[in-house]
Design a protein that fits this description.
With about 400 residues, this protein is of the alpha/beta class. It folds into two domains: about 5-225, Rossmann fold; about 240-400, Rossmann fold. It is about 40% helix and about 10% strand. Helix 4 (about 60-65) crosses helix 5 (about 75-90), helix 5 (about 75-90) packs parallel to helix 8 and helix 11 (about 265-280) crosses helix 15 (about 370-385).
Length: about 400
Amino acid sequence: MRHRVTVLALGSRGDVQPFVPLGQALQRAGHRVRVATFSAFAPLIQGADLEFFPLPGDAEVLLRRAAQGDALFGRSPIAGIQALARSYGTLARSLPTVIAGLGDTDLVLNQLPSFLFGGDLAEHLGVPWAVVAVIPIIRTRYRPLVGFPQGPGWLPGYNQLTYRLGEQVGWQLFRGAVNRLRKRWGLAPHPPWGAIGALYRQGVPFICGFSAHVVPRPPDWGPQVHLTGWWYPEEPDWEPPEQLQHFLAAGPAPVFIGFGSMPVADPQQVTALVVEAVRRSGQRAILHVGWARLGGHLPSEIFPLEYAPYGWLFPRMSGIVHHSGSGTTGFALRSGVPSLVVPFAFDQPYWGERTAVLRAGLPPLPYRELEAGRLATALRQLAGEPDLRAGGGGARAEASG
């Protein structure tokens, strides 16, 4: 039976891009797929022959706004979540009006933070829904929510509490907006603490785009939690620019250095740090511009890169230095090339820890501790440690599962 599927997805490119291969797979199975996300990602969605539905906002602007000050990338997970939630909270007025236009739907797949709006839209339309996630956000008593410290995990109830805290930050900012939309639809308002507990009691499915070999499944995740492996986007028609091909052919395999969608306060300072680290290490490097806006005048051994598909690029590297968003982590592990994770915030320290445990990379080097000497040492280790390369090959098989 042919169904009309609506995917609600917000965030950076790395948050939205996995729903392209998922949507394409659904379309190959005979369904119609519409992805509701920020307008900046319209080319990404429409280029994959999926229907695009615009949601208000700009992910880069929202993230840069959240990054002002020290809260977002500081040591407190709650402060970081609050900073991001306050920025996204500016959408509270416009988002409900737009979501109200998402009729003609047989199934809702919801990626929005704190599970916002997806269940409400499904209830209004009388259709099923599921949560889709590319990070492990499902409640468990066996580990804290990603981004929270694991040390206090021995305290009774600590792990469970971290999930409630993370959920409530997003819910409380949007509570009024959600309940106004429910009133417009003739639905009863949610209680002050939201309907997240009901989501678990009702057995709403969680469809998780990461590997059970990388994220061990805790015993208290029920049968409604499905771990499918990463949803890797493929770009078979992409051709590397001639300058990139020449750089790769001109010497030993370089190391990749890039922080994806993470903004930095001083791009010139971070670029200078990277240049000095590469010089000390004696390596060649590809420097990804990204939302950090790195680059400028670079020595000949560093190539500035605007874009290349990670599935094509990473296997050609000698090492990968990255911020460890979920999708980037999946590509790095699948490549078999060892990584240095430089986590900024959120789920990134978790992926960095898993990369090290799987022997697919060095211990994480937090961004706030990044300096040229430590990065240079890490670059030499990535290129010269046979144990890391062996571990990376094992992780490649696990990330593909």
